[in-house]
Amino acid sequence: MDRPERKIMAVLEGRAVTPPPIWLMRQAGRYLPEYRQTRGTTKSFLDLCYTPELAVEVTMQPIRRYGFDAAIVFSDILVIPDAFDRNVRFVEGEGPELDPIDEAGVDRLVMPDIARRLAPVFETFKRLRTDLSNETPCSFLRCALDDRHLHDCGHGTSDQAPARLFAYQHPRAFEKLLR
After folding, report:
1. pTM of the model
2. Does position 1 have pLDDT exceeding 60, yes or no?
3. For all residues of the chain together, what is the average pLDDT?
4. 74/61 Cα distance (integer angstroms)
């Protein structure tokens, strides 16, 4: 028998649950006033991602406000290229940008100490396991690779065309980048 407090997990396992669980992409988003207040205490979006107590707070805000059945960890996939010392920046009114990478740039990537560089993100997960009630599972969602980082783009596109083109034109470099 399903524990009612884990209904989103039952649905993910393919079982029907009534009423269905509620979970929304971008739960914190820019629309919550408490998010904007928390964000206003940091120098940058990445500072918010790398400050566990604030990332936990932003993750918990929509859970407290709306009682969603799952929490989405507040972070961003761009912490990964940032950990590789890529020039990641968030341009006001434009969104995230980073310096494009080409085939030669993939060959020059150096594997950083990921555990050390991403320790604050891991700490956020650890704190959330304690702060979330047993009925609220947690997930980290975002495409693991997007076209902001590839070829001549430097910013996202709706169809991922630069990433797909890079994979087609440079399969060896694309495979290396994925590894």
Report:
1. 0.72
2. no
3. 79
4. 10
- Tokens in use for 61? 């805000």
pLDDT at 151 over 80: no
- 3-class DSSP state for residue 97? strand
Tokens of 86: 């890529």
Q: How far apart are CA 139 and CA 15, in angstroms?
A: 19
Tell me whether strands 71-72 and 138-139 are parallel, antiparallel or unpaired.
Answer: parallel
Contact 91, 104 (CB under 8 A): no
CB 8 within 8 A of CB 137: yes
Q: Kindly report, residue by residue over 99-117, the tens digit of the pLDDT.
A: 888 889 888 888 888 889 9
Residues contacting 1, CB < 8 A, separation 6+: none
What whole-number percentage of the chain has pLDDT above 70? 81
- Report whether 70 contacts 5 (CB < 8 A): no
Spatial distance between the Cα atoms of 131 and 124, rounded to a whole number of angstroms: 10
CA 61, CA 52: separation in Å to the nearest integer? 14
